[in-house]
Amino acid sequence: MLVHLNDVLLQARSGGYAVGLFNALDTEMARGVIGAAEKLRAPVIVGTAEVLLPSSPLENVADVLLPMARRASVPVVVHYDHGLTFEKCMEALKLGFTSIMYDCSTEGYEENVRKVAEMTRIAHAFGATVEAELGHVGDAAGSDDPARYYTDPRQAADFAARTQVDALAIAVGTAHGAYKLPPKLDFDRIETIARTIPTPLVLHGGSGLSDEDFRESIRRGISKVNIFTDLNLAGARAAQAALDAGATAMTELMEAQVQAIQAAAEEKMCLFGAQGRA
After folding, report:
1. Which of 7, 26, 63, 81 does the annotation list as catalytic?
2. Separation CA 235–CA 252 (nearest Å)
3. Are the beta carbons of 167 and 129 closer than 8 angstroms?
4. Higher pLDDT, 120 or 106
5. What's the CATH number where 6 sits?
6. Interatomic CA distance for residues 36 and 72, integer angstroms
């Protein structure tokens, strides 16, 4: 069933577990992720991000994900992640995405507040929910010290009140992409922010964290975890293994990818404690 963020994250926050966002750019990825959710009876968030649109255009992703979400036997949010432009966020809303992330985290604080508050009003009129980011989750391949961009708990309270966002991504030491060195998460900061605001908190840059990192982050107050790299790599490895084993047709690669992506998604859903929560 097609739902929005509040249908799954408010329960996750009160229940002490997290719901995974798994970017799914094609039918095989979507089959793997939604298949995992249905098998485990877990709520799930599927979607894409603006940086991934060169690989799969937004309207094509909508054509795949929205019908599959409506047919699913578990709650499925279709989410547009890291929307960087007002125009693309509006396109996602018009296509029927039930959730968008408007990422203005690189803007100054007041501009971030202004833009996100405006988008929240618009999205709520569409019946959709909004995620924003405060602080900045960096690039794992970069050299910047991530502590420079950590989310300030007092600022988070002001931001949540003024924007009325439905979920807030916070910067606590994670980064996007594959990590060169193990990250060091600021768990105390997660807990402080979770106690300060009622808004469900989001952990970006989840691929590559240890199982214990995930468990502790969720225990301290994270309600949504974003995963893409792990699934992307699992699908690629499965395709390569099928080719090495003598596969000569796309149909042979597709089934191998679906199975590998489903297995990777199931592992994360169980780790997040989402199984049996649908």
Report:
1. 81
2. 13
3. yes
4. 120
5. 3.20.20.70
6. 11
Which tokens sit at 45? 């968030």
Residue 277 within any structural domain of the chain? no
pLDDT attached to residue 77: 98
pLDDT at position 143, please? 43
User: What is the DSSP-derived secondary structure letter of residue 247?
Assistant: -
Instruction: Answer yes or no: is 222 within a domain.
Output: yes
- Are the beta carbons of 222 and 16 closer than 8 angstroms? no
Closest CA to 205 of 172, 233, 187, 227: 227
Q: Does residue 201 form part of some domain?
A: yes
Triad 175, 69, 252: Cα angle to 5°? 80
Between 270 and 148, where is the model more confident? 270
Measure the CA angle with vertex 64, ends 58 and 67; round to 5°.
120
**Per the structure, how many domains does the chain have?**
1
Could you confirm whether 158 is annotated as catalytic? no
The pLDDT assigned to 137 comes to 67
Run of H or E including 2? strand 2-3
pLDDT tens-digit series, residues 119-165: 999 999 999 999 999 986 654 444 455 566 789 999 999 999 999 99
Range of the domain at 253: 2-271
Is it the case that residue 177 has pLDDT exceeding 80?
Answer: no
